[in-house]
């Protein structure tokens, strides 16, 4: 940072490391993907992918961009409760973390409250002149952009990552599996 408070190349507000962040809006049928610039200033749409291909596609995007973090929208009700859609987002995260752990890519996965994001995305598309059925093709991308931009704004305001860090199941970590006994040795029973 310069004394005037502007950011110079390589610096980030409050010391967060530079790097691309991804935003993901998980739907039942489609998943929207967005990405940021290296400095985490602005989110832009990437694509909408079918749900059954989404984890592999997000993983590929994370690898291609050497993403620091993937922000996944967590759809809560207005009262803050988690329903079936939130459980699907959590399942998506678990699947993504398991795949990330196999690649060795050091990318965090975080859940970010996305109440009303899809509603706001539909409204923005309608206000921009896109009507009805044409929304479906891009609404998930717009929602992913909104999720990611919210996270970027929180990062700039607080100097910390937004959202809830999702930690993988240690049973899924290939580094935690015990090595088989050496040939010619007996494995002792712990019972």
Biggest beta sheet summary: 6 strands, mixed
| Helix content percent band | 25-40%
Head-to-tail CA distance between termini = 59 Å
Q: State the secondary-structure class.
A: alpha/beta
How many DSSP helices? Answer: 4
Which range does the strand content fall in? 15-25%
Q: Kindly state the mean pLDDT as a whole number?
A: 80
The unreliable regions are: 1-11, 172-191
Quaternary organisation: single chain
Principal-axis shape: globular
Give Rg in angstroms.
Answer: 19 Å
Return the string of H and E elements: EEEHEHEHHE
Q: Biggest sheet: strands side by side, in what order?
A: 3-2-1-4-5-6
- Beta strand count: 6
What does this structure look like?
Helices cover 37% and strands 18% of the residues. It is of the alpha/beta class and 191 residues long. It has a six-stranded mixed sheet. Helix 1 crosses helix 2 and helix 3 packs across helix 4. 34% of the residues are buried. The N terminus and C terminus are likely disordered.
């Amino acid at each position: 940072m310069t004394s005037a408070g502007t950011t110079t190349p390589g610096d980030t507000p409050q010391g967060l490391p530079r790097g691309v962040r991804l935003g993901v809006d998980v739907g039942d049928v489609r998943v929207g993907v967005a990405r940021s610039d290296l400095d985490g200033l602005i989110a832009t749409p990437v694509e909408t992918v079918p749900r059954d291909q989404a984890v592999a596609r997000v993983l590929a995007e994370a690898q291609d961009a050497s993403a620091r973090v993937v922000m996944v929208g967590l759809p809560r009700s207005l009262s803050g409760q988690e329903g079936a859609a939130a459980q699907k987002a959590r399942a998506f995260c678990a699947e993504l973390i398991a795949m990330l752990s196999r690649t060795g890519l050091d990318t965090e996965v975080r859940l970010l409250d996305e109440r009303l994001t899809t509603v706001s995305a539909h409204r923005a598309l309608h206000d921009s002149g896109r009507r009805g059925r044409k929304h479906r093709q891009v609404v998930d991308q717009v929602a992913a952009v909104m999720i990611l931009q919210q996270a970027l704004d929180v990062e700039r305001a607080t100097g910390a990552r937004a959202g809830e860090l999702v930690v993988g199941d240690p049973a899924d970590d290939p580094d935690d599996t015990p090595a088989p006994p050496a040939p010619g040795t007996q494995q002792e029973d712990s019972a």
